[in-house]
Specification:
Blueprint (H helix, E strand, L loop, with lengths): L1 H25 L2 H24 L4 H31 L1
Helix pairs in contact: 2-3
């Protein structure tokens, strides 16, 4: 009987921890999806353009990573400014 009660408590704590983890990231899911799609499309466009220009493969890879970093930075700054303007 006592072990069943302890199991319930542990399970309840686990469920609350799980829901708090989900609720913590729930506000950002839309931004993750939008950022992932935007980053994929723009990185593909840069890499395809560089490959179409018959650049060296090392240059294509460098351009792809540079675009990925720049796009991530731009998306984070845009999200920060958007959130800041909503609060003001």
């Amino acid at each position: 009987m006592l072990s069943k009660n302890l199991d319930k408590r542990h399970q309840e704590k686990y469920l609350h921890q799980e829901s708090s983890w989900i609720s913590k990231w729930q506000d950002y899911i839309g931004e993750f999806v939008y950022g992932g799609i935007d980053g994929s499309v723009t990185t593909f466009a840069v890499v395809a353009g560089a490959a179409g220009a018959h650049l060296d493969s090392a240059v294509v890879i460098i351009l792809g990573f540079a675009n990925l970093l720049a796009d991530g930075f731009a998306m984070s700054v845009g999200s920060y400014l958007s959130t800041k303007s909503e609060k003001d």
